[in-house]
Amino acid sequence: MPPQAYPKADKYTDLNTIYTECSGPGGLRLTEFMAEKMGLRPGARLRDIGIERGYQTCFLVKEYGAQVIGLDPDDDRTDGIPHVEHLYRNSRAWGVENQVIGLKLGVPETHFASNTFDYVHSTTTLEMVRGILGADFYRKCLDEIYRILRPGGIFGLGEPMHLDVPIPADLSIYTSGEGAGPEGWAKCFATIAETEAACRAAGFEIIEAAYAPDA
Asked: What CATH number does the domain containing 114 carry?
């Protein structure tokens, strides 16, 4: 199988900036992968959940022509500035400030009307909700996402997954750490089957579920 191609993401070559500004691993390549899988189209109304500094959000606007509302309730861990303020800083740098709205909100309390969005996108975000706040709260988030999507809308969800085996002991150093309780980050990682089941329970039809090729 040939290597995965990322013609949009690979135009941006300042990797120091990309990995400083992006949420989690994968950078802009993950965002392009998700957008292509979702079939994101110009002019579509997209809600981006868990934007961190909004760099990937701006990429979706610039490269796909989407109209985006980015949601994130948190402040940046490095400088304490709200993530939505970083979104606007980045939107000006990308020249897309008129196509982006940032709201300091999270799921499930979005306060949007039902059937509002064509697409919802979220990567490296909701797994922390499941790990820290529990499976029931995670399900409430999925219910809310389903509610605000228009009939036939697409939800693109990217999360770090593990295989259907225990996490090996030699990887425990990478799945522990402050912020996720005494068990560390390991409890944030589910299997694809577990996530599929949660999405189906919220009403979603699974179009595709797999590991990203470069994961």
From this structure: 3.40.50.150
Domain count, the chain: 1
pLDDT tens digits, one per residue of 40-67? 999 999 999 999 999 999 999 999 999 9
**Phi and psi at residue 120, in whole multiples of 5°?**
-125, 135
Q: What does the angle CA 66 – CA 141 – CA 109 come to, to the nearest 5 degrees?
A: 80
* pTM score of the predicted model: 0.90
Tokens standing for residue 215: 């994961």
List CB contacts of 100: < 8 A, sequence separation 6 or more.
54, 57, 58, 61, 68, 69, 70, 87, 88, 91
- Asked if residue 1 belongs to a domain, the reply is no
Task: Name the nearest CA neighbour of 52 among 72, 80, 34.
Answer: 72
Residue-number span of the structural domain to which 164 is assigned: 9-201
Cα 8 to chain centroid, rounded:
18
- d(C-alpha 207, C-alpha 38), whole Å: 10
